[in-house]
Amino acid sequence: MRRRVLKEDLRLKKIIKNITLADWTLFLVLLVVSVAGIFITKEALPRGTDVTIEINGEPAYTFPLNVDRTIPVSGPYGDTLIEIKSGRARIREAHCPNRVCVKQGWVSKGVIICLPNKILVFVGSGGGDKSGKEIDAVTG
């Protein structure tokens, strides 16, 4: 076992030794482009004005994002509390097994999904219009 680890260490050292300036340059360019892409994508998405709540794939509610409120929505696992406050939305309380939707936190644009309860919370503009959900900053 120890011999195998030593051989792998020698191979890794040989690979690192053979890295050229062009390799490092390519790595740095890709790193900068990746980080810049995160910021460009954030700015390309418009800030939301409405919150649309879908239950079982059907639009159920649409609320303005600038009015603070708490909305109870029933699902198979019980009531889910959706909170709108300060231009953001979140799922405050859910009775699904993992509570991933609650852990997602506040969203000012995008989607919060509670799969077990079949609830989708769209934070964006368009008031329930599906055209805003088909094209995003990535797909163009």
Structural description of this entry:
The chain is an alpha+beta fold and 140 residues long. It has two domains: 2-44; 50-130, N-utilization substance G protein NusG, insert domain (mini-chromosome maintenance (MCM) complex, domain 2), CATH 2.60.320.10. 34% of the residues lie in helices and 32% in strands. It is built from four helices and seven strands. Strands 2-1-7-6 form a four-stranded antiparallel sheet, with no helix packed on it. The chain has a three-stranded antiparallel sheet with strand order 3-4-5. Strand 4 (78-85) and strand 5 form a beta hairpin. The longest helix is centred in the first third of the chain and has 24 residues, at 21-44.
Give a quick set of tags describing it.
140 residues, alpha+beta, mini-chromosome maintenance (MCM) complex, domain 2, 3-stranded antiparallel β-sheet, 7 strands
What is the count of distinct domains?
A: 2
Q: How are the strands ordered across the major sheet?
A: 2-1-7-6
Per CATH, the architecture of the largest domain is Sandwich
> What name does the CATH topology of the largest domain carry?
mini-chromosome maintenance (MCM) complex, domain 2
| Class per helix and strand makeup | alpha+beta
- Strand tally: 7
Q: How would you characterize the largest beta sheet?
A: 4 strands, antiparallel
